[in-house]
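Hi L.,

You mentioned the student needs an example of a multi-chain input paired with its predicted structure. This one should do, with 1174 residues in total across all chains.
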Amino acid sequence: MGRSWGLGCPCTADIKECMQKIQPLKYGEETCFNGSVIMKAYSSGLDIGSCNWTINSLKRSVTYLSSSLCMPACWKGFDYRSLLGNDLVIFSDLSSLNSTANTCTETHEIRNNDMIVDNDPSLRSASALSKVEIPHQLFGTDETSDEIEKISFLCSCIIDSLEGGGSVLIPVGRLGTVLLLLEQISDSLESFNLKVPIFMISPTAEETLAFVNTVPEWLSKQRQQKLFSGEALFNHVELRKVNRLHVFPSIYSSELLMMWQEPCIIFSPHWSLRLGPVVPLLHRWHADPKSLLILEQGVNVEVALLPFRPVAIKVLQCSFLSGIMMHKVEPVLEILHPKLVLYPEDLRIQDPAKENNSWSYLYYSENVQLRVPSFVEDFKACLETNLTFQLRPRRLTQQNIAIARLKGRIFLSKGKYFLAAPRIPMESSNKQLLYWGSIEPTCLLMALQERGLVGTIHWNEDAANSVCTIQITNPEKAVIETSARKTTISCEDENTATLIYEALGNLCDGI
Amino acid sequence: MGIECLVLGAGQEVGKSCVVVSMGGKRIMFDCGMHMGYLDNRRFPDFSLISKTGDFDAALTCVVITHFHLDHVGALPYFTEVCGYHGPIYMTYPTKALAPLMLEDYRKVMVDRRGEEEQFTYDHIMECMKKVTPLDLKQTVQVDKDLEIRAYYAGHVLGAAMIYAKVGESTIVYTGDYNMTPDRHLGAAHIDRLQLDLLITESTYATTIRDSKYAREREFLRAVHKCVAGGGKVLIPTFALGRAQELCILLDDYWERMNLKVPIYFSAGLTIQANMYYKMLIGWTSQKIKDTSSVRNTFDFKHVCPFDRSLINASGPCVLFATPGMISGGFSLEVFKQWAPSELNLVTLPGYCVAGTIGHKLMSGKPTKIDLDKDTYVDVRCQIHQLSFSPHTDAKGIMDLVEYLSPKHVILVHGERPKMALLKERIQSELGIQCYYPANNEKLLISTTQNVKIDVTKKFIRNCSSAMLRNVKNSSLSISDSSSKYTEIIKLAREDTTAEGILLMEKTKTAKLIHENELLRTLGVKEHQVRFAFCCPVEVTRMEHLSNEANTTHCHENSFRKVDVPRCLATEDRLTTANKTLLHILLSELETRTECKNIQIASESLQLHTFHVCVCSDEHCSHRKKENGVGESVVYFCCSWSPCDDRLARELLQIMGRLTLSC
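Structure written out for the whole complex:
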C-alpha cells in the first residue's frame, strides 16, 4: 500500500529506499520467514490496510491484536474469525488508554477567558447520549449507529456555521474520517441546498483520492457493493465532476485564489495545527466567532491553539472510535479463545479480568522483558510416504505399542518439519541395539539349543546381583554372563557369537 | 487416497470449461462455462454427472470461477438459479464485477437478436452474483475447516486467476486461462513454487510457439491505418472486456502519436461502462499502468467515443469496436452484414474463433459468400485481418509453468485433441511428469501419496540441529575411511540433516518420534545392556628400554588426537604405569595398521566408538579362551563392545591377534 509522501521532504529519498525494502502483503497472504515462522495479516478496521497478525512458529501460535474496529464505514472491518485458535494473544489495543474517561464523542468546552464558552445545549445532549451504556453485543450495529450519529451531529454543526456565514476548517487526521466526513457533509449541503465549495488542500490529496478509488479489496462490504453495481467507490469522484469539491496541492495555487469564496469548507493538514495550510487559514479565521474548527480527540486543544490567540472561532472536538471499547475486550477474547493473554500493564487497573476465564493473563510493560511459557510439548512433523515404507515396526510384548527405528532426512519447510527418505539409501541393519527387560537363563539355553549350541547353566549366588553363567561347549566355546541388567557374550568365533546374539534378541524386548 | 477429476467441459475441446475435482472428501467445481458453438444441450456442462438427484449443495463443497469469459462463467447463473446450487462461489473482485456484464450482454444477444428462449434471466444473473464471495490475489481463504483456496495472478484478462486448492496434504492448481507474457494492460501470470499433486492447465496453444508480439501489434496498426486512410471502416468484433481494452490502449496511443482524427467508436454503453470498471480495478493491471495511474488513468481514453446505431451507414472512415467477438450474432453481426460487402472495409478477427461462428468461417479460407441461414447470405468483399496476438500462453509458456511447478501429475484441458496429444508426449518425455487429457464427461483417478502426521519430541529436534556437526565427526569412524569419502559425507550433511530416532506407534494416539535416549523412559523400562567381550592375547617382545621410554611416549603423543594422557605418573601404581605404556604402544600399532586417527585413549583404556580395550591382569578372566601354553611373552587385552560395532571389533581383534608389541 505504498503511497508517495510529501514531495520536497529532505528525507524523501530515505523513505523511498525504505519502502523498497518492504514486502507488501495482502490480507490473508502467507509469508514465511526463515522457513519456520509464518505470518499472516488480517484487517483490523482501524484504517486502510491496518491489520492484526497471526504468527505461527514451530513452538507458538500468536495473535497480535492491535486497535481494531468492528464495523468501520470505509475500510474492511475487524476480521476476528481469522484470528481464532491461537494459544497466545498479545493484546496491544491501547486506544482506551488515551480516552478511557471519554471513549465517545464529546464536545470540548474550553473554559478560558480568551476562548469562547460554548453553551449550546445540543452539544451537551450529544455528549450525554454517547455515554449511554451500549448493550453487551460485540458485532451489532450499535457502534456504527453511534458513529453515524456523531457524524450527523458534526454535520449539523457545520451547516449551522455555514448558514451563519462562517467557514469550516477540518484539519486532516485519519483518512477514513476525512472521506466519511466529506461524503456526509456534501449530502448535508445537498439536503440544505447550500452552495458552498469544499476545498481539499494537500500535496498528496490528488493521489490519495485517486488511490482510494482503486482499492476495492481493502474496503468495507458496502463500498465493495458499489464496485459490483458499477458505481465509484467514493462519491468524491462525482463531487469533483460537478465542481463541488476542488483539490489543490497547496494554498498558494493561483487557481485556488481565483476560485476562493467564503464561507467554505476546507480539509487540510495538519491536525497538530503546526504545519500545513491549516496554519495560515487558522490565522485568518481564529478570531471569527462564526467559523468552526473541527479537531479529533487526542490533541490538547489549549496547547494547539496557543499561537492563534485570541481565539474566537468555535472549536468542536470529537473522538471517533479508534479501537476495541473497554467493555468489549472480554467478549473479543472469549471469541479468540486463547490460553494466555499478554495484556498491557498500563491498562491493568481497568482490566476486566474475571475469575472464570479459560485463559490467564500476563502483564507487559514498555522495555521490560517478559518470559512467556510455551504450550507446545512436541513439534508437529510430516512423515513422507517414501520413508514410511522403509519402517520395520516391531510390536512390543507387553504394551499395545509398536516401535520402529527411523532414519531419514529432516528439513523445515513453511513452518513444518518434514521427514523424508534419504536421497542416497542409507545402510540399514536389522541388528537391535537397545534392549530392556531381563533374560530368563533357562529360556536362553533352550533358544541356544534350538540353534544347535550346547551348554550348561551355572548359578552364581555370591554376587549382589545374581549373575548366571552359561557355558557353551559345542560347537565352539563361549561364555554368556547374564544378570538383571546386563548380558555379556564372550566368544571368539564370530558365527557362534552371532547365533547367541540372535537367540538373545528373540527373548528380550529391544530395538 | 487420491484425487478424482471429472471433466465436464473443455475436455479435448475449447469451450464450457468445467472440471470437478474431489479430494479428501471435498468436491470443488472449477469454472462453470458455456460452449459458444452449440445451441442445444451441449451448450452447458452435464451437471447430472455431479449429482443424480440434483442435490448439488450436498455434492459440491464450492464453485471457483477463474475469469469472466463466458466459456468459464457462462453456465453459472443456470447452475445456481435453475439447477439450484446454493453453496459458496468464489471469484476474484474483477471477475465478480465484470462477469454480470458479460452474462447480461450474452443473454441479450441470445434473446433479443436471435429470439431464442432464454436459459436464465437478468434477475438470475443478479441473484447468482449476490452469492459470490470475492477473492483477492494470494489471499488464503478457508472455505471450510479442511479446504483452503488461493488465487494467483494469471494475466489473460482482468481478474483472471489460477486457483490453488488444498485439502489435508492433497494440493492442486487449476490454471484457468493464463498468459505467461505481459500484454498492453496486464502482467504475466505469477505463481509461487508450490508442491503439487496435480496441475490442471489450459492448452489452447499446445504446440504453437509465438514470436515477439510487438511485430504483430505493428501489423495490426498498419492494417487499420491503411484502411481508414483509404476511407474504409474498420470493424473490430471483440468481447466487451479484455481484448477491447487492450486494443483501445493500442489504438488510442497510436492515434495520439500519429495525430489521427478518425473516430474510434465503442458499440454500446456496455464497453464504456466496462472502462469505468477497469479504472477502479487498475490494481489488477500491469505494473506499468498501475504506476502511471495517479497521473492519468490509462482507461481514460482520449480518442474513443460511444457509437450510435445511425452511424452504421454514415459516410467516412471510422473504427468500431462491437460485441460479440466471434460475430456469433448481435451487434457485430449486424454491422458485419452492412460493411462486409465493401472492399474498402476491414474486419479484424480474434486469434481464436469457436467452430460454428461466422468468425470461424471467415478464418477458414477466404470465403466470398457467407450463409447466415437458409435464405440470407452476405457477400464478403472486405479485407480480413486476423489478430495473431492472444491472451493465452503458448506451448513454451505451458512447458515453463509445468516445469516450474513440477507437479506429480498434469491434466490438459481447454485445447484441441491432436495438439494436446503432442504436448502430453512432451511433458512426459521432457519433464518426466505423468500427463493426461481426458475427454468431456470422463472421470480420472489420480493416486496421491499421503504423508503421515506425527509428533516429534524437542529432544529429537535438538539432536538434529547438532546432527550436521556430529555427522562430520562420526563419518571418520569407519576403519577404512579415505579422504574422498570423508568430503562426500560432509557434503551430504550440509545438504540435508539426517535424522535418526525411534517412532512410537500406539493404537489410538498420534505416532511420536523420539530420540533413542528417550525410549526407555518413555516406555518405563530399564535398559538391559548387551555387550560382547573377548580377552585377546597379544604377543610381546620385552627389551631393555628404560632410556627409550620417554622418547617413545613423546613420539606417540604427537600422533594422538584428543588424548588424555595423565601427567602426574609419579604417584601412580607402577603396574598402572606399565599398563599405560602398553596401551600407548597398542594404540600406535593400531593407528598405523588401520590408518584410523580416531582411537581415543582414556586413563586405562583405548576406545573406538563402543569398542573398549584395557590391559587384563585377571588370570581367571572369564572372557579368556582357556588354552594352555600361554607364555610370558603374552599380554591380555580385555576387549568389550556393543553389538552395533561388532564388525569393527572383529576386525580390530584380528589385527590385534597378529600383532607383536615390542616394549
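You could point out the following to them. Chain A touches chain B through 88 residues (CB under 8 Å). Confidence is low (pLDDT under 50) at residues 1-6, 100-137 of chain A.

Best wishes,
N.
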